[in-house]
Amino acid sequence: MGALVSQVWTARSSRAPRLHFAPDPAKVLVRSPGVTGSEAGEESNEALDEFIAARCPTLCREFSPPWWLFNGHLQTAYAVMGDFSKIDRVEYDRTLLRTLDGGTIGLDATPPINECELPEDTPIVIVLHGLTGGSHESYVRAILAPACTPVEQGGLGYRGIVVNFRGCAGVPLTSPQLYSAGHTDDIRVAVMHIANRYPRARLLGIGFSLGANVLTRYLAEEGTHSRLAAGCAVACPWDCVRNAAGLEDQWLHRTVYAKAMAQNLQRLLARHAEAIAKFPEHPLATILPEVLNNRSMSLTQFDDKVTCIAGGSSPPFPFPSAWDYYAWASSHEILVKIRVPFLALNADDDPIVQVLPIEAGGNPYVAFAVTEKGGHLGWFEKVQSTGEIRRWVRHPILEWLKATGEDLVVKDRQIKSLHIVDGFLKEVGRDDIGCKEVEGGGHVVGVEGEEGLLAGL
Length: 457
Prior knowledge:
By secondary structure, this protein is α/β, with parallel strands linked by helices. It is built from 13 helices and 17 strands.
């Protein structure tokens, strides 16, 4: 079946990523890479596979993990247990946004204004983190550190903004609504705010794990109205039903991964117990003691008790069960609706994400790259020149960001206008969502993470 709807590149090395495209990849308008002077304005149409071949060479090269990180379990374990505090240091300026329902999300922008002031048209990388992560996560910093380093120092010179979900990374919980893999309105209002603040900047989205699922759903829902010019989904869970079943049905996965993720979520909720108690009539407050006292909870059990009732606005929340929530939140079936260049990156040996929709519904805008090794948010390799262990995946992601941030020509997008209503920024014609800046925030040091939570998930 896949051979009928996918065009697959076979590289010389079996360790190079497998690249999947639709039979007739979308044509994208591009500037010739590296062209300067009088020819800088030249534009041409390229098929998406040609665009990637010319600008993302790492996707055609071998990825070889160190001998001692030879499978997905070890790669994932190193992502969680490794010490990344001395590399990829990133500092941020935090802005807090209040949503119409009373919730709060945190936007962490880098480089901080006291370090340098970038031109208003500087491309912006908008990042969505994983399950209980934030701007401190090593996988986030591995991309933003080089992406936001000045060009003269070898970086891309971009601006980075991490959208920290409600209650994550020190963001206060100010409503009983949490976040989830399927709820997109928080990223929607965050992008509205960023677009309003930087109207001349190109916006590029990248999501990791749960955040990749949110990004995929957002881009699919927006279609031709997307304010993001391109997207990149890293270790996306895609079919939440089948991947959750994979975690539940295997002893190791259920005992290690499903419980570790549930424990992270329980610890995150415990930090906000006092805030949740301010909403005694909400089901979340009622169920909280039982959830916090369960020492053997799995991810599905947590989602059944918490996420399916508090993971987003009503409707569609609440859901009858975690499995109903998973069916709704999955992104594999709506992947076909994305209408901007989109790169998906997954590893075959990811113990958390075991089912991949490489056919992407035949969507010509999607390039799907699958590595043989890499685990979940790992992809660690040994840098031969220094002996350091770093993430290989930063190379293709940075190449993709540079290509879509500088070479891609974006025209004729159907972007809806924004306006202020009662102090809230809203889209014209949609009154149910909006945001405004509130007091708080400040300076954030990216290597100072959420103590007590397992990193890398």
